[in-house]
Amino acid sequence: MKKVYAFSLVLLLLLLTSCLPSDIAHPIRDVPTEAEFQALVEDLSDSTVNLFGYYMTFEVSLGSGLIFDREPSKDGMYYYYVLTNNHVVETMTYMKVKTNQGNIEIGDIYAFPLSETDNDDIAIVRFESSYEYPLIEIKPLDTETNTHVQLSVGQYVFGIGTPVSKDNFNLTTNLGIISDLNSYYVSHTANINPGNSGGPLFSYDGTFIGVNTQRVEIINGETIYLVGDAIHVNKVAEVIQRRLGNVTPKLGIIIRPYDDFVSMEYEAYFGDKAADFDPYDYVPKNSSGVVIIEVNSTRSSAGVLERFDLVQKLNGVEIKSNEDLINAIGTLQVGNTYTFEVVRFNEDLHIFENLELEVVIK
To answer: Which listed site, 18, 45, 129, 183, has its alpha carbon 20 to 30 Å from 77?
Structure first.
């Protein structure tokens, strides 16, 4: 809330009172019938997704999320925004988003913590699609009503997500209850497991009330069963606004120095899936520069630069390190134009080519 200056105490009180959020009360109600619950789950599952985290071509992580917003992009397409945990996406270069409609969308890690002090475990993935996906409402984001969700210990809750394996896509948890509450966490007894991270927790009337984040297993040295923590929806809304408010124009590339890219022991990090990965299949030997290891699908470089392009010059400046590239980029602003000189492997001709490519910041 912005600080308000007024000329009288009465006016100040009126202004402050008008900013106070209203509460959505969730008193304990009867458990829904089986048919009601099935219909509710089917509806909510259409906006709940499975997230596969990738580092370059290697699948690394499994998590869940929910589609909460969209906006037009171009030519009948939309940008969709997926809420999840930051620990599901951190260190990943992109995400595959599996939807309940059977689609696989390519997602960018769009908004995430930017400092050690900004450590709330919330991130936002963005993808572009022509499909019209339904959204799950996050009620406190409605700035017109300025609403908070009020919860109660003992209230019935359930989650939807993809625990343990992608084969368990969009499983619904058991009906649990809220066992404890504070302004940050909703502790509950709906059974969540690894892979549920980032997925939604709902009150049994279908209101989104939190992001499932962790299963509590040990307290004071004792094993605990069926206790999980979800980040409270009111906190989630606050973090979403902060995350999106800090998004700035970007080229949309992830880079590594050439020497690091060619010397990394990929099989040690990624196991058998990297057994046949040879970095020299993608960049020439005895070279220099920085390697693009990912191009964000919804950012300015998409469709121009490609994964494994070796950048050797930017706007005529020689690039030998990440720092060189950052310095050559300078202050990113919409409308800036950057000319990349890259080496790219032509798979059709089986040769390395020198290309000059122009990226305009949008």
So the answer is: 45
